[in-house]
Structure formats: C-alpha cells, structure tokens
Amino acid sequence: MPCPTCGAPVALPAPASKSVPSDFPFCSERCKLVDLGRWADGTYKVSRPLTADEQAAAEEEAAERPSRRSSGDDDDE
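The chain above was modelled as a monomer; its predicted structure follows.
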C-alpha cells in the first residue's frame, strides 16, 4: 500500500502478526510527523460531524482492534 504522505510503498503487516510497526501506515517517522503537522495546522479537517450510527460503528471497530501496546511494553517509550 502507498504511504499516505509521500506515496512510497509500505508493506502491510502479516494478518497473524501481533505487532504493527510504530509508524504504520506511513513509510517513516518523518512522514508520520508531517501528517500530524497537517492535522495540527488545519490543513486536514473533518468535513462534518459523525452521525450517531457512524460514531457507534467507529467505536465498535476500535474495540475490536488489538491494542498497539501490550502489557509490559510501557518502559520502551
């Protein structure tokens, strides 16, 4: 898949993999920070508020996703 910032190819994590690279879906930490800066300066914005159904679906999807942090890994940051 392409990096959302620069378009460089990014390998998808294996479905059975429990770990996801910290900069995924970006190709690098730099592209991840460029994207964050675009949100911070208002370049990106949400076009409209979510409906109640959309919000519920997003919360359900987030609850089904495995956590990026596993217990005991907090010391690395």
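Residues 3 and 26 are 5 Å apart (CA to CA).
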